[in-house]
Amino acid sequence: MPLDHAQPQTIFLKDYEAPAFAVESIALCFDLREKGTRVLSTMTVVRQSENMPNLVLDGDPQMDLLSIKLDGTPLPAGRISRAGEQLTIKDMPASGVLEIEVEIEPQNNARLEGLYKSGGNFCTQCEAQGFRNITFFPDRPDVMTRFTVRIEADKAAYPVLLSNGNRIEQGDLGAGRHFAVWEDPFKKPAYLFALVAGDLGVLSDQFTTRSGRTVALHIYAKARDLPKCQHAMDSLKRAMRWDEEVYGLEYDLDIYNIVAVSDFNMGAMENKSLNIFNTKYVLADPQIATDTDFDNVEGVIAHEYFHNWTGNRVTCRDWFQLSLKEGLTVFRDQEYSADQASRSIKRIHDVKTLRAFQFPEDAGPLAHPIRPDSYIEINNFYTVTVYNKGAEVIRMMHRLLGVEGFRRGMDLYFQRHDGQAVTCDDFVAAMEDANGADLGQFRLWYAQAGTPELTIEDHWEESTGRYELHIKQSVPQTPGQTEKAPMHMPFLLGLIGPNGQEMDAELVAGEGTRHDAGWLLHIRQSDNRYQFSGLGSRPIPSLLRGFSAPVTIKASLNRADKLFLTAHDSDPFARWEACQDVMIETLLDLVKAVDAGQPLDVGQDLIDACEKILEDAQSDPAFAAELMTLPGEAYIGQMMDVVAVDAIHHARIHLRHVLAHALESHWRRLYREMTDTVFGLSPEQKSRRALKNVALIYLAALGDNETARTHYAQSNNMTDRLAALQVLVNGSDDAARDAAFADFYDRFEMEDLAIDKWFALQALSDKPDTLKTVRTLRNHSAFSLRNPNRLRALVGSFASGNQLRFHAVSGEGYAFLSDIVKHVDQLNPQTAARLVLPLIRHERYDPVRAGLMRKQLQALLNVDGLSKDVYEIVSKSLM
Ligand code: PHE
Ligand code: ZN
């Protein structure tokens, strides 16, 4: 098929070469103007490799190059050439000072990469390759340099001028302009550069490090949002303390700045001492943020803070190593959050995320190892695989080496690599060397894509008291990887006796050790056998406790065993897992019955188990809420060969209906008992709110419209308000729904993050006319294709969160999405490439739907001037 653009180029890890030139230092001067900003860069460049005479710099092809001098003399035209993203300086001497002046247009930058404007302020986003939109530079993470940054701007419009490091100078320039100079003492790659100029308020505080240094903490936001920054500030201080306590890591500068901007492609960015955040992960007060939002703010604040050591002090050699910083930092933020409230609920949430997003990625056309071998557009590799599976891989090392062993490995990693740009292999080597461990086979986790599948059978021999587990593993084929070797993974096992107690036993065959949470078995082969002796009766195995490896399991456990575990397992994760398993099994049976037009039967055993959960709910309401939350429609779809879009929806509604009716008195009681008169954010209060709002869902399933209406009217916080809206948007009481949505809009018209929720909830409705509503909302005055949060709220929620309506068999949902993607791609390719993802797994659907999805993908591929971001995703999905 003819493409109007040249076929984008693929970059390979195997082609990595060390940089030919180092940059010793760079001085940047920004002359910020409303129409065009001039950037003057002065850098000292030193040759590193004899056989590379030319200096190649990266730069946006659109960038206006005004002048270029070497050691004070303008370079003649014959010494420079520009092709695509590269500027080549021929016959560069062994060292020299380059002065380059460019003009850029931040006011027109809709990609939100490089220097751009958000809410009238200037800000930057340079990871992964945004710095090349600011000036010409060797824009790769292994070129680390010392930055000095001078910013000049109008004083009234941009009173705040920030960059990395310390402010060493500031003053007036006359004519209403002023300047500031910032110097970062740490060498860093260009992707960690940041600049902000704007009219911002600031919340300030300070932190005393354990060695007694005082660090000034500042959170900058629009003045009216400052009261919503306190939770972020408290989270930051807790994170700083935690990293000292758990890893002995202290902050290294006298100032730590966070700036909140409302136009941002991702969640947040760890620029050295000047984090730039999506407002979504900074602003939180009970009126606009749910309990989940509070937790997310805390997690992301911690994540970016932790990057100061895992990412900034030790960075990545090249972008294939992205998981070096991201997998490790996600692991660190997960552990931090686990230490704040409930470790088991945090684990459940993290596993749910992994299964909902990473497992499908790993099983689809874009499957890649956590350290990819190739890419067309690196922005497409900020994935749940690199981040969340990457974190699981770190977690497995943590499990294999133990808390202290892991800490020894971290210490050695920093000792060896502080100030360097390194590889995933360097990290694993530090873990090995600090522990005398062999992680040779374990390294396959970095190279092999695909979610390993475990098949487990057990055998009990009454006469000898021996119990055998037989665990087989296989790693599925993924694009470009047809041959897979078996992986090394930790498998945490519990053996539970008839009284619900852990059983004592001895491991007589197979590799494993006793562990405080059961047995830590090592899986290394395709075929693994473990034998236990000394058991008085047949144990019920509690498998993969804590989700000790990111795998799927097929086990010979029957339903009664699983319900037994639901009631008795001492490992909370395993309890939840067992209960979910039975729910999934039930739902899949219901799907079959719906399709066959047979009566729908849920099974009294499940109802009884749920009753038990509700009877005991008081002791840990949030955990009961988790147990009683039904698996989502998309996840049920993953369990099927062909996703039965409509039947899944009906089956799930039916199960909820049955559990609502059978347990009605419990739901009414809990709804009452879990209602607090005063609002608070303590873990206990959040926990009770969680169960109350699950009860609300079941009460609504009884056809009780009144409760949701009252719930909305009486809510004094966003968690409750949203819970009510969620119920109303799917319910039968149209008048109540319309009134609540109108009220919500009026109430929060000025609050972007709340209005995002207003868009999202309507897009998530299971009503048959949802697409029509979404189309209308696309033309709402508050909607904009330029704001990623708003796009994700309306379009992202509909396409990735509403399986029933997005996958309507008419194909209209697909057409709607592809039209949006086409438009967004012209503005912001990075965000467009994320929005298109719900279309790519066409092979999972029936021929009619699959054909309609492919038709839209094909149409996108034919779009004139398609970005390489979208091209990479779409073309790979059609291979
Ligand atoms: N590095 C950022 C983070 O994880 C994510 C990010 C990537 C932000 C690319 C912007 C652009 O924490
Ligand atoms: Zn990160």
Automatic annotation (TrEMBL):
Q: Specify the Aminopeptidase N-like N-terminal domain's residue ranges.
A: 84-192
Question: Which leading EC class covers this enzyme?
Answer: hydrolase
> Is Transport tagged as a keyword?
no
InterPro entries given for it? Aminopeptidase_N-like_N, Aminopeptidase_N-like_N_sf, PepN_Ig-like_sf, Peptidase_M1, Peptidase_M1_dom, Peptidase_M1_pepN, Peptidase_M1_pepN_C, Peptidase_M1_pepN_C_sf
Give all residue intervals belonging to the Peptidase M1 alanyl aminopeptidase Ig-like fold domain: 450-554
Q: What is its EC number?
A: 3.4.11.2
List, for all copies, the residue spans of the domain called Peptidase M1 alanyl aminopeptidase C-terminal. Answer: 560-878
Q: Does the keyword Signal apply?
A: no
Name the needed cofactors. Answer: Zn(2+)
Source superkingdom: Bacteria
Q: Which GO terms describe its molecular function?
A: aminopeptidase activity
Cite the Pfam families for this sequence.
Answer: DUF3458, DUF3458_C, Peptidase_M1, Peptidase_M1_N
Keywords attached to this Swiss-Prot or TrEMBL record, sorted alphabetically, are: Aminopeptidase, Hydrolase, Metal-binding, Metalloprotease, Protease, Zinc
What does the record give as the reaction this protein catalyses?
Release of an N-terminal amino acid, Xaa-|-Yaa- from a peptide, amide or arylamide. Xaa is preferably Ala, but may be most amino acids including Pro (slow action). When a terminal hydrophobic residue is followed by a prolyl residue, the two may be released as an intact Xaa-Pro dipeptide
Signal peptide range in chain numbering: none
Which regions span the lipid bilayer?
Answer: none
The UniProt family comment states: Belongs to the peptidase M1 family.
According to UniProt, the name of this protein is Aminopeptidase N
Which organism was this protein described from? Iodidimonas muriae
